[in-house]
Amino acid sequence: MGRCTEERHAGVPEQELQPVHLQLSLLCCEQSEPSVLLRPRQWNVVSLAAVMFLRGRWVSTASVVKTFLPFVIVLSVGTHLGGMKYLIGIVAFSVVMTGWFLVGTYCIKGLIEL
Fold first, then answer.
1. In this predicted model, what pLDDT tens digit does every residue of 7-57 receive, in sequence order?
2. Residue 2 pLDDT greater than 50, yes or no
3. H, E, C per residue of 41-68
4. Longest C-alpha distance within the chain, in Å?
5. In which element (H, E) is residue 40 found?
6. CA dihedral 50, 113, 36, 12 (to 10 degrees)
7. Nearest Cα residue to 109 out of 34, 52, 30, 45
C-alpha cells in the first residue's frame, strides 16, 4: 500500500489498462492498492451476461416471482389473444435482438465506448 505505482501491471500494455472509479483514484490514491484502481480490459457485455446467467443466484423466492410474473402474464395474454402468430413473433424478435446484441459486441467494437 502507500504510493500509486504500477508495479503490479508491468507486463500489461498501458492502452489495455483503464482507470476504475477515477474520482476515487484521485481523491484517495494513498489508501488503495493500484490493482483496485487499474484493471486489464477483459470483460464485455456478453461475458458479464454469461456469468450472471450461469453463476447468478436468486436472493429470495419473492425475487423470482417478481422477475418472471410479468413475463408469464404478458406471454399468456398474448398467446390467448394472438395464438401461434404471437409466439412466432416473440421468438423471431428474441432471435433478432440476440443477434444484434452479439454483432454489436463483437463486430462493431468501437460503437459504444464508456
1. 555 565 565 555 544 444 444 444 445 444 455 667 788 888 888 889 999
2. no
3. CCCCHHHHHHHHHHHCCCCCHHHHHHHH
4. 65
5. strand 38-40
6. 90
7. 45
- Please state whether the predicted TM-score (pTM) of the whole model is above 0.85: no
Q: How far is CA 11 from CA 7, 25, 37, 70, in A?
A: 9, 21, 16, 49
Residue entry with cell 483514484: 25
Give the sign of the dihedral formed by CA 99, CA 74, CA 58, CA 114: positive
Name the burial class of residue 88, with classes exposed (0-12), middle (13-18) and buried (19+) by CB atoms within 10 angstroms of its CB.
exposed
Task: Report H helices in the chain.
Answer: 22-27, 34-37, 45-55, 61-82, 84-106
Here the cell at position 95 is 432471435
Query: In this structure, what C-alpha cell is assigned to residue 73?
Result: 402474464
